[in-house]
Amino acid sequence: MQKYAQFEPGEVNGVRTVYQVIESDTDPDGTxxxxxxxxxxxxxxxxxTDGGLTFSPPAVPAPVADPCEWLIDLGPxxxxxxxxxxxxxxxxxxxxxxxxKDLARRKFIDLKDPRVTLALGFLAGEVHPQLGTIAAPLxxxxxxxxxxxxxxxxHENLALRKDYFS
Amino acid sequence: xxxxSSIRVSSSKPRLITxxxxxxGTYIPTVANARCLVRLQGGGAGGHASGSGGGGGAMVEVFLxxxxxxxxYAVGAGGAAANDGSNTTFGQFTAMGGRYDASGTNxxxxxxxxxxxxxxxxxxxxxxxxxxxxxxxDGGMGGNASNAGGLAGFPVTAAxxxxxxxxxxxxxxxxxxxxxxxxxxxxxxxxxxxxxxNAPAADAYGAGGGVNAAGRGGYIEIWDYGA
Lengths: 166, 227
Prior knowledge:
The complex is a heterodimer.
Chain A (H helix, E strand, L loop, with lengths): L1 E6 L8 E9 L11 E3 L8 E2 L22 E2 L1 H6 L5 H6 L3 H11 L4 E2 L3 H10 L17 H9 L8 H7 L2
Antiparallel strand pairs in A: 1-2, 1-3, 2-4, 5-6
Chain B lengths: L15 E5 L3 E4 L6 E8 L17 E8 L4 E4 L13 E3 L2 E3 L22 E4 L4 E4 L5 E3 L10 E3 L9 E5 L5 E5 L2 E6 L36 E6 L3
Antiparallel strand pairs in B: 1-15, 2-5, 3-4, 3-15, 4-10, 5-6, 6-7, 8-9, 11-14, 12-13
């Protein structure tokens, strides 16, 4: 049997989209609309710019962006800085205390927020534009990179997803 | 599924049963405004070239009176490898074909959906809304390298079934496959999905194809009960 395609009504920028494909022993053109003979690999959502002489496969839809991809709950964020978390919490350096207070007042941490990057950079010994340089780094650069660039797993942002993205 | 007892018919047996397995045309009823049970089966999707089986098409069932002028129909074709199954149409009714997902090589291809709800779901609550759809059965999802194709009625990739008991304890039941092996196509109401590399059986209307194989075409069955 031969496959026949029927287009959706109208066209967009000269492109017509296949709505339905049937198989038939005889040419059904004119029966319940116009039908165009097509190759076996033509299916719904295929497109044509020449009235059905040739067809292109459907466009691959772009993946839906996850707004929480790089957002992490406060507790799991602190866990990422282990074993330095306690040292950071107990530090009497007013600059470290300021960073701690700034992070703690938030509902969750955005790992791609440049302020978070600067804060961890300061703890790792990098120069902070407002805070300068820490006297003795509390984390390593490797720890900073791992904390900021390790993909967030489902158990690390359960709370923020429920509270703010549901 | 719709209940036949909800419609009074003059006889318990249909006057005529008509089946369409291909092409397009017009169904003329036995009498004007004949009461008819119609089952529409969407075409099954073809499998991915290397990654997954195709989804089975949905089956929708309607009970309606068909005017003497008849209603137009078109039986959706099964998708070749890497193609959706086509919708099957009868008058204003449509059964969705199985779906093929080109965005990845290890996806579970979705089955055609007879009806759907939408809304937000999280670990312990769900807010769902939606109208009541047509009676019928969703197509089963296509399988992948780690899973067999889905049963009819399971069009999406739920890895397990969650049951929350009265005391809040939840139980997970492993999702049941269709027994056709990994990378098989999804089932339809009418038959099992094809095994990996194979199309479904000839009478498995609307079932999805295995990896790199075509899905089976759709089907229309009309039970005409007359006046």
